[in-house]
Amino acid sequence: MLALRSGLTRALAARMLAPQVCSSFATGPRQYDGTFYEFRTYYLKPSKMNEFLENFKKNVHLRTAHSELVGYWSVEFGGRVNKVFHIWKYDNFAHRTKVRQALAKDKEWQEQFLIPNLALIDKQENEITYLVPWCKLEKPPKEVHVLWWNESADSRAAGRHWSHEDPRVVAAVRESVNFLESQQNMLLIPTSFSPLK
């Protein structure tokens, strides 16, 4: 299970609830090296979700030949369902540009994945993010991995309840809430081909 909160809250929560968090991302100017992560969300036509996922599973090797896939999930709940969320790692913006150019020239990728799936996608969103300075991205000791790791949706709810009673968390939220522009929560289920589970 993966619970994702976008925006500043990811960084704040990572700092406040460090024992629960495996990795956190921020969207602000927190880049200390060139490495960044692209969050991509595809909103799919409801009747085409399975077809899209099967096609990506079959052709994931064509895409990962160009850059590193960190994880790939389907959205269980949190806003609109029938969407997939994936994270790609890039060394810098020049690397991302080279990857995009290579994909545009990759006939096999174009013909086997991109062209057949374009009609299945209603909308796409991309976001550039960086790891916050006090976190690192690594494989977890357990098979289940999340950006906010929880045993279950119930354990997530219990952890949030506990954090709302912790005066340190309450104070940190009060101090930082003015900087929050937006917040979104999603429960994500890893696909069979996702490196992070």
Describe the structure.
The chain starts with a strand and ends in a 7-residue tail after the last strand. It has a seven-stranded antiparallel beta sheet, with helices on both faces. With 197 residues, the protein is an alpha+beta fold. The N terminus is likely disordered. The chain has six helices and seven strands. The radius of gyration is 17 Å and the shape is globular. Strand 4 and strand 5 form a beta hairpin. Helices cover 37% and strands 25% of the residues. The longest helix has 16 residues.
List descriptors.
197 residues; alpha+beta; seven-stranded antiparallel β-sheet; 6 helices; 7 strands; disordered N terminus
- The percentage helix is 25-40%
Instruction: Tally the beta strands.
Output: 7
Note the overall shape.
Answer: globular
Please state roughly what percent of the residues sit in beta strands, choosing from under 5%, 5-15%, 15-25%, 25-35%, 35-45% or over 45%.
Answer: 25-35%
| Structural class designation | alpha+beta
Q: What about the largest sheet? A: 7 strands, antiparallel
| Average pLDDT rating | 78
Counting DSSP H or I runs of 4 or more residues, the number of helices is: 6
Head-to-tail CA distance between termini: 8 Å
Order of helices and strands: EHEEHEEHHEHHE
Gyration radius from CA atoms, angstroms: 17 Å
- The low-confidence runs, each spanning 5 or more residues with pLDDT under 50, are 1-24
Order of strands in the sheet with the most strands? 1-7-4-5-3-6-2
Domain NIPSNAP: 37-136, 143-195
GO biological process, one term: mitophagy
Family: Belongs to the NipSnap family.
InterPro entries: Dimeric_a/b-barrel, NIPSNAP, NipSnap_domain
